[in-house]
Amino acid sequence: MSLKDFRIVSLTEFRHNTGPLMEWVETTGNRIWLKRYGRLVGAVVPMDQCEKLEAFEGRTLADRRRRLEEEYGAWKRMKALGHLDKDQPFDWEREGFTTKYATFEAEEKRKAEDRARERQRMRDLQALAELDELLGPEDDPLPEEEVERRLALERLRHQK
User: Fold this and answer.
1) What Rg, from alpha-carbon coordinates, does the chain have?
2) Any idea what DSSP says for residue 58?
């Protein structure tokens, strides 16, 4: 395998001739080395060479893009729910919104489950109060199994 040709170009020249230089990279498969103040600072390489480098490094651009899209989606959901400043832009360099949103989502789910349990407890208490009214003070108390059975029937009735 032989090395491809390359050109060394200043950043200023690259800015002024971006179209033709990119065309040269794309059609020939060659590289452009970029320099600033006489020092090499970067390179423009064809996409197939970039993909080979990513495969060698064990990561892909597609993986990074997918993670960033997940991060951006989580950031948008948190912002929509008012948990972020409305003027705060998305920081493409910072990650962690997916984790924060998952934690936030789990907390919201836990709160909803707590509210549902509390509503069920209130219905159970109301059902017990109704049973007490039906029994009256002079009646014999119901066996515990009967109370549980009636509570279960009451729960089923409220669910429908």
Assistant:
1) 33
2) T
